[in-house]
């Protein structure tokens, strides 16, 4: 399957929070540039995330064909998350006085249409900068821009569930958090898995809406190794 759009990649280096202001400025400028039809979606992923591009791409193609290419975002939404005051991500009351963050996306992966990027960029002029980028971009700016994201938490998996990639459940895991950076193992897994899934027909869900992935695939077309 080839997507009906171009792919643009941007690398973002994780920095200490006191160095992030200039980095965020650069990111917001890039998002502002991308608010056209060339890039219908913007997808952010950490370097330790394994992404099932077959399922994700199929979902986006179906959404695009159904007219869902504006005003939406997909991610694992965190709700009622308490502000941490005494760990790696500790935040002072001066930086963020409230006890809880607004709903925001897990930073492992999130995706939104480019018109949302423009809205977030515009909102950044009215929301005080906050160095926890996931909270700032997908929580504070999203709320100011009055944009809703759809939670896709059911397709986020942990490493032990990667075994499902080699069964008829392979489509169930779309985003997997890998603890570590074993590049060789990741490439081997991807190559073996890709050869298998290319022989499988992906069915269309009964309802095409953001965040609703296929519940089953055509078992007749599934080929076991």
UniProtKB/TrEMBL annotation:
Cited PANTHER family: BETA-1,3-N-ACETYLGLUCOSAMINYLTRANSFERASE, HEXOSYLTRANSFERASE
Transmembrane helix recorded as keyword: yes
GO molecular function: hexosyltransferase activity
Keywords: Glycosyltransferase, Golgi apparatus, Membrane, Signal-anchor, Transferase, Transmembrane, Transmembrane helix
GO biological process terms, semicolon-separated: protein O-linked glycosylation
Top-level EC class: transferase
Enzyme Commission identifier(s): 2.4.1.-
Family: Belongs to the glycosyltransferase 31 family.
Keyword Transmembrane: yes
InterPro entries to which the protein is assigned, alphabetical: Glyco_trans_31
Protein name: Hexosyltransferase
């Amino acid at each position: 399957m080839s997507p009906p759009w171009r792919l643009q990649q941007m690398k973002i280096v994780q920095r200490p929070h006191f160095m992030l202001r200039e980095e965020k400025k650069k990111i917001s400028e890039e998002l502002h540039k991308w608010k056209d039809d060339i890039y219908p979606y913007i997808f952010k992923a950490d370097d330790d995330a394994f992404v099932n591009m077959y399922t994700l791409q199929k979902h986006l193609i179906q959404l695009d064909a159904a007219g869902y290419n504006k005003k939406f975002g997909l991610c694992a939404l965190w709700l009622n998350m308490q502000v941490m005051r005494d760990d790696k991500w500790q935040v002072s009351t001066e930086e963020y006085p409230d006890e809880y963050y607004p709903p925001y996306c897990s930073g492992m992966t999130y995706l939104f249409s480019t018109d949302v990027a423009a809205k977030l960029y515009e909102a950044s002029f009215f929301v005080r900068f906050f160095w926890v980028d996931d909270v700032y971009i997908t929580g504070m700016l999203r709320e100011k821009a009055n944009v809703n994201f759809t939670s896709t938490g059911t397709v986020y998996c942990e490493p032990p569930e990667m075994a499902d990639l080699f069964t008829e459940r392979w489509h169930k895991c779309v985003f997997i958090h890998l603890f570590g950076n074993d590049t060789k193992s990741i490439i081997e897994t991807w190559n073996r898995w890709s050869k298998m899934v290319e022989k499988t027909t992906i069915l269309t869900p009964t309802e095409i809406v953001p965040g609703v992935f296929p519940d089953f695939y055509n078992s007749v077309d599934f080929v076991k190794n």
